[in-house]
Amino acid sequence: MRPRRSGDCLCVLGEMSVPGPIVDFDVLRSVMPNTRSYAAGEAIFHDGDAGGEFFIIRRGVVSVRLGSRTIETLGNGEVFGEMSLVDAKPRSATVVAETDCEVVPISEKQFLMMVREAPFFALSVMRVLAHRLRTANEALRAA
């Protein structure tokens, strides 16, 4: 599916091969103009850090790590850090830029505004959480 605009709101229309929202970054930039850039090898956050925002990858690749083990690699249009926004707990993993990357930080206030303007965005984030929980459950079953 392709991203599309509906008025001036962000439209999230589907899933990538690994569930994650597909966003129209032109629309997102008009609503959330701030981005952050990270060089390859730079930590975006560490396990145990406070987390009041999550991120959408605008450009690049990041790895999600537990200790020295990479548990997931994410790319353009995918989200990370959402658990800390949802449950207001410290970060549960470390995220490192694998390539030079640009991310869009989304605070709780911005998330609520996006959900109000484009309710499917919330469903997309919930699908990401559900996919990650199922993946963790499958890993536990296999262990």
Could you provide a short overview of the structure?
With 143 residues, the chain is an alpha+beta fold. The chain contains 4 helices and 8 strands; from the N terminus they run αββββββαββαα.
CATH superfamily: Jelly Rolls
Beta-strand residue fraction: 25-35%
Largest sheet: 4 strands, antiparallel
- How does CATH name the architecture? Sandwich
Give the strand order of the largest sheet, numbering strands 1, 2, ... along the chain.
Answer: 1-8-3-6
- Give me the CATH fold name: Jelly Rolls
Quaternary: single chain
Unreliable residue stretches = 1-21
Mean pLDDT: 80
What would you call the shape? Answer: globular
Please give the domain count.
Answer: 1
- As a percent range, the share of helical residues equals 25-40%
The strand count comes to 8
Span of the ends, CA to CA: 36 Å
Description:
With 143 residues, this protein is an alpha+beta fold. It has a single domain, classed as Sandwich (Jelly Rolls), CATH 2.60.120.10. It has four helices and eight strands; from the N terminus they run H-E-E-E-E-E-E-H-E-E-H-H. The strands form two sheets. A four-stranded antiparallel sheet has the order 1-8-3-6. It has a four-stranded antiparallel sheet with strand order 2-7-4-5, with no helix packed on it. It is globular. It starts with 24 loop residues before the first helix and ends with a helix. The model is unreliable at 1-21 (pLDDT under 50).
